[in-house]
Amino acid sequence: MGRRDALAIPPGADPGRLSRHLNALHDSFVSSGAIDPALRAVVSDSWRRSVRSGVDPEHSLARLPLDDARLADARALHPLAIAMPVIRRLLVEDAAEAGLLVAVSDAAGQLLWVEGDPVLRARAEQMNFLPGADWSENSAGTNAPGTALALGRPVQIFGPEHLLRPVTPWSCSAAPIREPDTGAILGVLDLTGGPEVAGPQTLALVRATVAAVEAELRISRLVSPSVAAAGARDSSSTLPRLEVLGRRSALFSYPGTTTELSLRHSEIMLLLATSADGLSSAELGVALSDDDQAMVTIRAELSRLRSQLGPFPLHSRPYRLPRLSTDVDDLRADLAAGRLRQAVARYRGPVLPASRAPGVEQLREDLHRQLRGRLLAGDDPDALLAFADTPYGREDFDVWSRALAVLSPSSSRLPEVTEHLVKLDLGLR
User: Where is the GAF domain (predicted)?
Assistant: First the structure.
């Protein structure tokens, strides 16, 4: 997309004159279906998609699929909940003073938070721009949050470029927020108001806030991974910590120090951390390799590991560790509690993917199967799509099929999911 198409109001253009011109193009499209070549491609393509999905420019309004109880659950479990203080500090406070609104959606286009100027919020609610509403293109037609989600990139929509008639007095700038480790779309950040929102500075501000949010998500895991997500246990924040999900080697954090272990030491630590009663030298040898390993080799590795752990003890007879927290245990707790969105956000990849130790391979397969099984048995499109968008879910036909089955007919992701399933089906054949 060129710079001209990216900007809703070209440099030097008069917003009033442009609005009148776009209103005429909108009227022509509604009455005849004809699209003027002068319309930005990002808008004309969206109008076509929206109409094909059944949106009526004159009579449709965004759907309201989430009642108060479901909205509260969606907010509590969504990975972006932890970043809302950053969004409020960087954008909402100034937006309220400027008479603007800030909205945050999930990956399916459902608005989870709408904050800002209270007078403007009351006006926006009349067109169903409120928490719990579905603002994907298939529900609300062309709009910055829905179109940004459909395209996977920042979008500005100025006044009459909106497809639904009640939305044409408004303008908005939005950009997707991505999961830092996998690149999966978590939701969209949107700024809504009058014509001034369609200026280039506004889109730059939205992009900068998104960058800060993604940095906050990344930092929260590095600084305090055990309490980064909602529902984490308070006691775990003081425990030593082992991180193995999506990592070639484990990260071991102990009060005052953080160490990246070798792959072999990562395997030993994980096997001991996930064994309730500890392991003998023989049991550890079997879990580490299909080949017979001399006890002296196992003992030598354990001796070197002890020097890496410093004051953190590694007990023997059998070999075992004091209590510590792991991201594997946290993921299992999320699954047991039904926190699927949180589990997917925590699952940054398979357990120690470079390891060929039989015990680690079994744990890796079991954990992936548990997460995948819970997703396939559930009906949360946001969690399914977040998993499907990852490298380890991209080729999973069953996951994409389940996402299609539970996705709302109004979701802007529907064409993409359908197309991807066709490609996967052809590949399987």
Answer: 121-216
Distances from the Cα of 362 to the Cαs of 245, 287, 333, in angstroms?
14, 9, 19
Residue spans of beta strands (DSSP E) within 158-293: 171-178, 185-193, 241-243, 251-254, 257-260
Within 13 Å, how many C-alpha atoms sit on residue 395's CB side? 5
Residues 283-319 pLDDT 10s: 888 888 877 665 667 788 888 888 878 778 888 888 8
Residue 134 to residues 48, 83, 222: CA-CA distances in angstroms?
19, 21, 33
Mean pLDDT, rounded, of the chain: 86
Sign, Cα dihedral of 410, 8, 201, 180: positive
174: left (phi over 0), alpha (psi -120 to 50) or beta: beta
8 Å CB contact between 136 and 412: yes
Domain locations along the chain: 3-223, 234-377
User: For the domain with range 3-223, which CATH number is right: 1.20.120.80, 3.30.450.40, 3.40.50.2300, 3.40.50.10540?
Assistant: 3.30.450.40
